[in-house]
């Protein structure tokens, strides 16, 4: 009796899984292929996800756009921002460096690289990029504040090292 009952339950489960598989396969086949999207549609999707702060999807579409046009600093800068939001700080830093090389929002790119290094507890590298940003925008108070904070953290670390010697 128990064996029959288990066999019936197993049969129902297998049948249910097969139905779900067919449903998901049909829905995937009915969705338009992303390869068919025009550049304008990709830009629209990337910008929409970016505005919604949906960084995972934004990175996906920005990456497709960067494959199409690797010299577009705006795409690269936005992807750098999104990478930072999803804690891919190394990828973010590489994108910001590339955006700066393409002369897109250079001071902001350097400032954001400095923030990435701050998040990685590397204040000496953060200072390097904060100073680069300050060279471009010498009156920017946010940059000056970050420089001051990084210097204080470095001095505090030096004080701790002296005590522990």
Automatic annotation (TrEMBL):
Task: Quote the InterPro entries the UniProt record gives.
Answer: TPR-like_helical_dom_sf, TPR_rpt
List the keywords (alphabetical).
TPR repeat
Q: Which organism is it from?
A: Belliella marina
Q: What SUPFAM superfamilies does the record tag this protein with?
A: TPR-like
Q: Identify this protein by name.
A: Tetratricopeptide repeat protein
In residue terms, where are the TPR repeats? 107-140
Q: Which domain of life is it from?
A: Bacteria
- Look up the coiled coil feature and give its residue ranges: none
Pfam families the record matches: TPR_1
């Amino acid at each position: 009796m128990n064996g029959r009952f288990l066999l019936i339950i197993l049969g129902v489960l297998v049948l249910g899984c097969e139905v779900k598989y067919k449903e998901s396969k049909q829905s995937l086949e009915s969705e338009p292929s992303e390869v068919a999207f025009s550049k304008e549609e990709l830009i629209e999707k990337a910008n929409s996800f970016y505005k919604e702060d949906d960084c995972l999807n934004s990175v996906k579409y920005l990456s497709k756009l960067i494959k199409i046009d690797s010299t577009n600093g705006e795409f690269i800068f936005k992807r750098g921002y999104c990478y930072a939001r999803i804690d891919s700080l190394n990828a973010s830093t590489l994108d910001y460096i590339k955006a700066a090389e393409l002369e897109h929002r250079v001071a902001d790119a350097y400032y954001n690289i400095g923030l990435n290094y701050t998040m990685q507890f590397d204040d000496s590298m953060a200072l390097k990029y904060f100073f680069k940003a300050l060279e471009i925008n010498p009156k920017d108070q946010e940059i000056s504040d970050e420089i001051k904070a990084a210097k204080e953290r470095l001095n505090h670390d030096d004080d701790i090292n002296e005590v522990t010697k």
